Amino acid sequence: MHKHETRLKVRSYELDFFQHVNNAVYLNYIEQARVELLQSAGFTLNDFLAQKMLPVVVNININYRRSSHLNDELVIFTHISRIGTSSFTMRHEAYNLTQGNVPSFDADVTHAIIDTTTGKSTPIPDRLRQKLSSLHSQ
Description:
By secondary structure, the chain is α+β, with helices and mostly antiparallel strands. It has a single domain (4-133), classed as Thiol Ester Dehydrase, Chain A (Roll), CATH 3.10.129. Helices cover 22% and strands 38% of the residues. It is built from 3 helices and 5 strands. Strands 1-3-4-5-2 form a 5-stranded antiparallel beta sheet. The longest helix is centred in the first third of the chain and has 16 residues, at 25-40. The protein is elongated, with a radius of gyration of 16 Å.
């Protein structure tokens, strides 16, 4: 099972009026974890573009478990949870280390593989499927 670990520290400009992390900021945290996971497996934007395809987010489901505050340290574990014909899903599970390793949020993000020429979804090529499989855990 491959789970990538991303660590983040809550910054002042990520807080809302109530002094906890604004709900929309979690999308940025998830994006950072997603990019780090793909980079750890050797994916680059140029690789995708050379194959005339891109993974595009088509669905995000976030469960907010506990609010985070200024200077809290979060760890996000990310892995591929599902590989379909033309899409795959990443699972993110975050814990607040500052508050005693309590669950902070979890999210499932589905990506479709889009042909950059047509703008339509396309089956995942074998080479990409093999790389995604190395990041897959059930």
